[in-house]
Amino acid sequence: MQGSDRDSLWQLLEPSLGRCGECSNGLSDCLLVRRLLVRRLLVQRLWVQRLWVRASGFTLVECLVVLAIVALLAALTLPSYAALQRRALAREGAFHLTMLAALQEQLRLTKGHYQSAQALLHSRPLPVSLRDHYHLSVELDNPSGFLLRLVPLAQDSHFPLLSIDGLGRRSPRDLWP
Fold first, then answer.
1. Helix (H, G, I), strand (E, B) or coil at 164
2. Among 14, 20, 114, 126, which is disulfide-ready with 130 (CB 3.0 to 4.6 Å)?
3. What gap in Å lies between CA 158 and CA 153, rounded to an integer?
4. Where are the beta strands (DSSP E) in the chain?
5. pLDDT value at residue 17
6. The predicted structure's pLDDT at residue 154
7. Are residues 30 and 105 in the same domain?
8. pLDDT of residue 122
9. pLDDT, mean of residues 17-33
10. What is the CA radius of gyration of the chain?
11. How far is the C-alpha of 30 from the C-alpha of 6, rounded, in Å?
């Protein structure tokens, strides 16, 4: 609504007059006043709708604050999540190493001697998740009969070395079932 329209509307609706200044009718009967009131009402509704639409979105600052909080939480939790994954993979390796030790004893009973790493892996291959991070090592000239080891690959030096011998001694102790 322009300034001249606003001024003329207030002149027309002046309460002391009680009548339209142009047609001398009562304010409720004047067609010009009705048009101006309808126009004013439409402008007010449009203005209110625009405010409502603006208020329903997020500002750039709000989005950046949320993004910063999410990044901070990710930075805090990612190292502990990676440590949990390594520990779970090491536990899985300990479980499979126990199974390979039992297989080694079973093959000694059936064939009369302990088997090499290649023969063990031919009978029971390691899962892909373990093959990506470990390789199997077997020592047959050990005083306890054999020594099985899951040795971390060079790029995975942060994984623990797992071992079990023919007497059932295991290391590290906290990873075994």
1. strand
2. 126
3. 10
4. 134-139, 147-152, 162-165, 170-171
5. 44
6. 82
7. no
8. 87
9. 59
10. 42
11. 17
Q: How confident is the model over 17-43, as a mean pLDDT?
A: 64
Statement to judge: residues 96 and 159 lie in one domain: yes
Q: pTM higher than 0.70, yes or no? A: no
Closest CA to 101 of 87, 115, 122, 88: 115
SS3 annotation, the chain: CCHHHHHHHHHHCCCCCCECCCCCCECCCCHHHHHHHHHHHHHHHHHHHHHHHHHCCCCHHHHHHHHHHHHHHHHHHHHHHHHHHHHHHHHHHHHHHHHHHHHHHHHHHHHCCCCCHHHHHHHCCCCHHHHCCEEEEEECCCCCCCEEEEEECHHHCCCCCEEEECCCCEECHHHCC
What distance in Å separates the CA atoms of residue 95 and residue 169, rounded to the nearest whole number?
14
Tokens of 8: 């003329």
Q: Report the distance separating Cα 172 and Cα 170, nearest Å.
A: 6
Give the number of residues written for the chain. 177
115 is in which domain, residue-wise? 90-175
In angstroms, the CA 117 to CA 137 distance is 6
Is residue 40 domain-shared with residue 94, that is, in the same domain?
no
The answer to whether residue 44 sits within a structural domain is yes
What pLDDT, on a 0 to 100 scale, did the predictor assign at position 71? 95
What is the tally of structural domains in the chain?
2
